[in-house]
Amino acid sequence: MKRRLYLSSSSPRRKELLDQAGIPFDLVNAPVEETGLPNESPESFVLRMAVEKALSGFNKVPGKNVWVLGSDTIILKDGKVFGKPKHKMDAYRMLMSFSGEEHTVMTSIAIVNDGAVYSDVCQTNVFFRPISDSEFEQYWATGEAEDKAGAYGIQGQAAKFIEKIEGSYSAVMGLPLYELDKLLRESNFYSE
Question: What are the catalytic residues?
Fold first, then answer.
């Protein structure tokens, strides 16, 4: 029986990365409320979000021989969590706090298969060069900042702000492919 992977996400970047990795998948629409719990650590939050997304998707997919993937990304700097910007000034605040500084991107993944949950969190340090106000304005005008954690996408025009990374490029983009492959192997996705 052919195994199916379902992506419980609306992220075009996650779809692109799965295509890049050559992993066939279907989409399942299973949004979850992304709200932190009292005293929840950033790592616990991002991991819980991936698990909740995968479980929510699993509950919507018929059949037994299915694997459902959930993922979430947050940015952490100086103990503060940065999600998606709510408006232009929020994006400005985020990008200027990264300007000339280092921050951490945390991307979690979870796979649910037949009641079992496999999960991991990938942390990548990202170093920005200084960004001017005019560069921010130009970047904001591209529209790229609006739907991304930390108000930037490493794969887009914000790449020019990134001096270097320590960790996984694909995790910063939204789906750590090495960790995904590891979890797919652990969950016997590739087995005949």
Answer: 72
- Could you tell me the CATH number of the domain that includes residue 145? 3.90.950.10
Strands 116-128 vs 162-166: parallel, antiparallel or unpaired: antiparallel
Closest CA to 84 of 14, 148, 152, 173: 148
Asked if residue 43 has pLDDT above 80, the reply is yes
Would you say residue 191 lies in a domain? Answer: no
Options 19, 72, 114, 181, the catalytic residue: 72
Which tokens hold the place of 69? 């993937």
Quick check: is 181 catalytic?
no
**Domain range spanning residue 142?**
4-186
Residue found by looking up tokens 């999600």 in the block? 83
Q: Model confidence over 110-129: pLDDT tens digits?
A: 999 988 999 999 999 999 99
